[in-house]
Amino acid sequence: MFTDGVSLPGLSEKVMYQTCFDNLQYPDKKTANAFQFPANRLCGYKSQDVKAKRDFGMTVDHLNTLLQKQKYPCGLCYCQLTTDTASADRINNKLGHIDGNILISCVKCNTARKDMSSKGFRYKKLLEFNSDRLVYSIDKEEKNIYTNMKANIAGDPSIIFNRYAKRNETKIRGGKLCKKVIGYDANALYLWALGNDMPCGRLTTIETYPEIVEDIKNDKIFGFLECDIHTPEHLNQYFGEMTPIFKNTLFDCTDESIIGKHMYDYNQAREKSRSKPARKLIGSYLERRSLSTRRCSSGTYRMGDADESKAMMAEMMKLVGNSSFGRSGMDMSKHKEIKYESSDKAIKAKIEHFTFHGLEELNDACELTMMKRKLKNKNPIHLSIAIYQLAKLRMLQFYYDCIDIYFDRSDSQYQEMDTDSAYIAFSCDNPFQDCINLNYVSTSSSTSDAMVSLSSKNYICYLPDDLYKVKVSAKGVQQGRGRNNDVLSPKGFETVVRDRITLQGTNKGFRLSKETKSIITYSQTKTALSRQVLSRLYYDPKTGYINAQALHEKARELDPKITLKNVKDCYATQSVIQRFQEQKQRFDGFKIASHNPNSWQIDLAFWGKQPILTGININSRIGYANLLSNKTAATVLVALKAFIRCNKVDIITSDNGSEFMNSKARQLFKANKIEHYNNEPGDHGTMGKIERFNRTLKQRLTKMSPKRITHKLISDVITNYNTTTHRSIGMTHNEAKGKVIEAELNHNQVEADKIDNELEVGTNVLNRLKKKTF
């Protein structure tokens, strides 16, 4: 079996489908009633061969002999034949109807086979006969159901119930002292679920009817049910610890009543990233079964528990089995194509293509990542959903049918739950000795006196005795051979809970260098500020969509140890940056400057058809934007009044649009003692700063791709813009408020001196006129 797979995903796909094809049922080859092949049909076959320029040499005697040998059923689907349904089908479609190239089949199979080989068509009919036992993809006609299933698929939960439990120190639910912490693992849980009845056959839908819920309870219906489900209020306390409903949903990270005091304080301490809603797993669908695909490799995996010499084979079979399950739920919409180009022309063409996703520079070429133009979602996603649900059901059964029945809740408390494991604190030393016998797939994996749970996949169990047994789970941090022992220790985990600090670990290894084409070693420090957090900073309108240097400064407010290289590495992988990044235009000569710190440029920008009144301070670069309902003079006038109220304005420069040049606008400027200057639209020499600000605003909105822009979104973008350090002035725009940028004035003076030195009185010069329509 292992020789069939080029890679683990390829092997797992073979396993996923091959398990369905074992022991297929064949149709009964019953002998039908004898009859003679109709001789009058030979003329029709002869005319077909003449028209196709093929040889014809078929006789009625040969056809009758074939019927007797086949015992009168169809040679492809094995249905019983009659004089009306029997037909002469050619084995080799390139040859004509001649003796030795004929197969007696039914008219339906003869028509449907076309140019397919007889062996392949016979296998196709066999699969159709076993259609209720095989896993089928969801047809294109039912793509709405596929989309609904994909949107509501809920992975297995990894939950922290209680962060810290220690023998004779902490209390269970504030009552009895903790005496023991025991962890239980459900070995090969996915393989066990895969061995149960699975949703097979073609997808069919039925309308709801009044008794459908009762039929589901009585196992009269098998499949998926889309329904509204909730926990009744009078059962909230009973299901308070272990929820029976799992669902992916967004919740507010700023609501203390939802996330708890600890995480609320944690988010408050990290103000920059606390307000973004998080998508977490908190609920599930109604699950069950259909027809079994076949027993999986769980038996081989269980042999490794009994015989240590077979542990390697057991782990290998577990990996293959889990991979076959994972393959069914793989999101093929994220698949991409990798291409290599060396010519600048080809690279530019790929970057400008709408499927471009990212690139990485090599020595003499570029590795380009492209989105696929067409995707065929053929994976049976309903298979993975069923396995997920059965796995969650098994863990719920362990809680409600075992722990909750044999133990009072004052004697036990869940500490941490993962996909196939549960860690429980008990108020007695030998809780399972006399009251229960676990004889199914669950086995005790660890017994300890203390446990610290930091987050999903990050916990430690330990026995503070002479052996000092420790079981650690730290996803993303290397363990073994003494690596990170100073961090992955009971003291380290307890310090995190007690002092609310973060830990760092160092990963070391080797990899292939694309630059030197050799194997090199590397050392990587896993910091508290992960790439996921950096991405969250970047995609937040209040903090992101800025350059790498500015993002680094804001990231350092969360973690001073974050380096610019970490930010640039994360920055370079964001597809929106690579897709929408534009080459900066350089303009020589005089800069737009002013001796007055309250000098502004204003303009009307457009997002689609929606106008936005924008403004920028010439010195401090403070930005302003106000979303308008339309561009009429009355609407713009109201927006101008709001702009003047919010900012100190002495000078305004705008284009010569009627919304700024009408009599009411002039009266407004005059009443507020504002000097107003106007220029031609597109004159970069005088209106360059407001044009650059409009471009920045549009770039950030484009990267966000909002369904619609709102006043709050514009306000968040402007607040982020004004609190970001500007590279040319070396401070944020708000910090530069009220200041005059002397460096720009000095630059203009130097440029003016150059011109004075190059020209003398009486020198002929060329006066370039501005382009105008005529």
Automatic annotation (TrEMBL):
Gene3D superfamilies: 3.30.40.220, Ribonuclease H-like superfamily/Ribonuclease H (3.30.420.10). GO terms for molecular function: nucleic acid binding. Coiled coil: none annotated. PROSITE patterns: INTEGRASE. It comes from the Eukaryota. InterPro entries: DNA/RNA_pol_sf, Integrase_cat-core, RNaseH-like_sf, RNaseH_sf. Residues 593-741 form the Integrase catalytic domain. GO terms for biological process: DNA integration. This is Unnamed protein product. It comes from Phytophthora lilii.
